[in-house]
Write a structure and sequence with these properties.
By secondary structure, the protein is an alpha/beta fold. It has 2 domains: 237 residues, Glutaconate Coenzyme A-transferase (3-Layer(aba) Sandwich); 230 residues, 3-Layer(aba) Sandwich (Glutaconate Coenzyme A-transferase). It has an 8-stranded parallel β-sheet, with helices on both faces. An 8-stranded mixed β-sheet has the order 17-16-22-25-30-31-32-33, with helices on both faces. A 4-stranded mixed β-sheet has the order 13-10-11-14. Helix 11 links the parallel strand 32 and strand 33. Helix 4 packs across helix 8. The radius of gyration is 23 Å and the shape is globular.
Length: 507
């Protein structure tokens, strides 16, 4: 039966969320998050100690690394369980997980997006190879983040003689989503949103389990929306909430940037100052062939955009983002997931369908630590847990994967003198370690899949070979034994080493 649509305040809407509900929330980094709703839910809990024991489900990290986004929900008692793709932007949630105050799972962002569709359709789960041989594989922990997390939500199964992972479905009771405009019938359009995300499967999943769908919007129109513009039909929506001032910014970094929703040509970004980051970005760029379809991860990979613009190559390949934008110039920071003047914006689950099927020619991703087998940790960061986001989907399925990071972290400084690199301050923390605490990318499996895998730093370039990491390039002025081998916890394979291209070091 079609729900009776109500136009409510945020407080009135969240008052309808019962104890023990499973709540799915939309958004990515600083965009698409229904801030008015999570603020109101936090206020209700602080005032009433209700609702309690919620299960929170989200695909992408949502927050500013401080207090906004999903940080609002980080209260012991409010949450019982969290199933999320990325945790670093909501450190308050991570603190609850590390303290054992909640049950906590980390699953790949793309899998969670697709899982919402399976939940909506009452199918038995997502069957995928994404996550095999990583910490998400039940053989290696099943994505559980603490000892209090015991229920297995993913299992390894065999289909046609091959290993797969099955991520189990469960009911969604509440969907918290965001759009730009609601028409009188509750049809939702997203003309000022920088991404579509996973709003439709969230709404369908909650509706098909007899649950509650609350949509935060910027405004209500007087006339019916164009059918082609509707992203979520009104028949799925129970309540519409018009956000208050400051609670519906396009991203947590920008109130509104028209470039994220309009066709056109983006202005060239400001050139990067010379640093190890620029050296790395330049070397990565040389691995990207014209005509490639590319994904850039958050952090250091973002440097590829300004160096490509500086080199006049930004139009030679198509940049895509897991959130759904295709083409254009990706933004960084708290606007990550948005793209200036994209060619198209598709929904997030569909983007991951493309990625999982091998559609990416090149993925450029960061790395926290790398071991001798070429496996990579990006999630476990000592006293905090970052999570994987779309990393596992993307790294496991791109034809070429380029990991980029400084050779050592923490205080690294380099300079160029007479064409020779000088390490003026060595990094305190080793990046190439004998063992890593969590495997988010499994080197031996990548080798079996036939992926081309590169590891680019400011002083050395490695390639995944038959027996682990092969050192293939070295920066001018760098001593292989002193500046590379002695700064690693394992010895790479060294046969033929060539100089890194000289133009990477132009200051």
């Amino acid at each position: 039966m079609r729900p009776e649509l109500q136009f409510l305040s945020a407080a009135e809407a969240v008052a309808r969320i019962p104890d023990g509900a499973t709540v799915a929330c939309s958004g990515l980094v600083g965009a698409g998050h229904p801030e008015a709703l999570t603020v109101a839910l936090e206020a209700r809990f602080e005032n009433e100690s209700s609702p309690r024991d919620l299960t929170l489900v989200y695909a992408a990290g949502q927050g500013d690394g401080g207090s906004r986004g999903l940080n609002h929900l980080a209260h012991s008692g409010l949450l019982r369980r969290v199933i999320g793709g990325h945790w670093n932007l909501a450190p308050r949630l991570g603190q609850l997980a590390l303290a054992g105050d909640i049950e906590a799972y980390c699953f790949p962002q793309g899998v969670i997006c697709q899982l919402l569709r399976e939940i909506a359709a009452h199918r038995p789960g997502v069957f995928t190879k994404v996550g095999l041989d990583t910490f998400i594989d039940p053989v290696h922990g099943g994505g559980k983040l603490n000892r209090n997390t015991t229920e297995p939500l993913v299992e390894r199964v065999q289909l046609d003689g091959e290993d797969w992972l099955r991520f189990r479905t469960f009911p969604i009771h509440v969907g918290l989503i965001r759009a730009t405009t609601a028409d009188p019938a509750g049809n939702l359009t997203m003309e000022r949103e920088a991404m579509v995300g996973e709003v439709l499967p969230i709404a369908q999943a909650a509706r098909n389990h007899g649950g509650l769908v609350v949509a935060q919007v910027e405004r209500i129109s007087d006339s019916p929306a164009s059918p082609h513009a509707v992203r979520v039909p009104g028949m799925l929506v129970d309540a519409v909430v018009v956000a208050g001032a400051g609670e519906h910014e396009q991203t947590f970094a920008e109130s509104f940037n028209a470039a994220y929703v309009e066709a056109g040509k983006a202005a060239a970004p400001e050139p990067m100052p010379f640093s190890e980051r620029k050296i790395i970005a330049r070397r990565v760029l040389r691995q990207i062939a014209s005509g490639s379809i590319v994904n850039l991860g958050i952090g250091m990979p973002e440097g590829v955009v300004p160096v490509a613009a500086e080199a006049g190559r930004l139009d030679e390949f198509t940049l895509t983002l897991e959130s759904g934008p295709i083409g254009g110039t990706p933004a960084g920071g708290l606007s990550f997931g948005c793209s200036a003047h994209p060619e198209a914006i598709i929904d997030q689950p569909a983007q991951f369908d493309f990625y999982d099927g091998g559609g990416l020619d090149v993925a450029v991703l960061g790395a926290v630590a790398v071991d001798a087998e070429g496996s990579v940790n990006i999630s476990a960061l000592g006293d905090r847990f970052a999570g994987v986001g779309g990393f596992v989907n993307i790294s496991q399925n791109a034809r070429t994967v380029i990991f980029c990071c400084p050779f050592r972290a923490g205080g690294l400084e380099v300079a160029m003198e007479s064409g020779q690199m000088q390490i003026t301050s060595e990094g305190r923390h080793c990046k190439f370690t004998a063992a890593i605490p969590q495997v988010a990318f499994h080197g031996p499996s990548a080798r079996k899949r036939g992926q081309a895998v590169w590891y680019v730093t400011e002083r050395a370039v490695f390639r995944l070979g038959e027996n682990g990491l092969d050192l293939v390039e070295c920066a001018p002025g760098i001593n292989i034994e002193k500046d590379i081998c002695q700064q690693m916890e394992f010895r790479p394979n060294i046969t033929e080493v060539t100089p890194m291209p000289a133009d990477c070091f132009d200051n």
